[in-house]
Amino acid sequence: MNKDADLAKLLASEGISDTNVLRAIAAVKRINFVSADLRSAAYLNRALPIDCGQTISQPYVVARMTELMLAGRNHLNRVLEIGTGSGYQAAVLAQVADEVYSIERIEQLYLEVSARLKNLGYEKIHCLFADGRLGYAEAKPYAGILVTAASHDVPPPLLEQLDPNGGVLVIPVATRHGYQELQQITRHDDEYDVAYYDPVEFVPLKHGRAGK
Ligand code: SAH
Fold this sequence. Notes:
Low-confidence stretches: none
Bound molecules: S-adenosyl-L-homocysteine
Largest sheet: 7 strands, mixed
Number of strands: 9
Shape: globular
């Protein structure tokens, strides 16, 4: 029995329709990204705690954000993720992009997860220990940028590092009304179109790095 394929089927029944995304979910073994004591919960459609008080996102949210970032495109060249966390979302992105840059601000998580991704053979994921609010200008422009922590604003460097030719940024933005909404921002040269999607619950996008 392939539990990741079953998870993809469940997400399809919940409204995820992009076949590239469903294939990506089916291809990544979620169990590898969950701590040993939570393995029995790895295939529930739920967020779960990981080290350092952070969370691995709910599979539906991972799939939905990937779908919004792809925006109907089959495969992207470079993508940037802010908030590596467990590395699961980065592994899903690696199925739909040539190169994935993923930034984490907590040093301990960065060290653990970059070793995990290396052991699992994800060579196209480049882990970085930095404040993701600054993006990573060295590898710009990005066809897609995905932020997996909630912000009160859209950090300007991320807008600037988006491909001017149709790059898409997906970010949970905390509203004044106490909830977070997913924003999908598409860039055409100096124009940025914003579309609003599902309410979500993410840990906060913080400023600066934590660690040495
Ligand atoms: N994408 C992850 C879930 C991330 S939880 C997964 O698939 O498991 C959010 C993560 O964002 C946490 O690990 C948190 O430390 C990180 N984070 C918060 N603010 C950040 C920032 N400014 N730069 C980089 N990472 C940040």
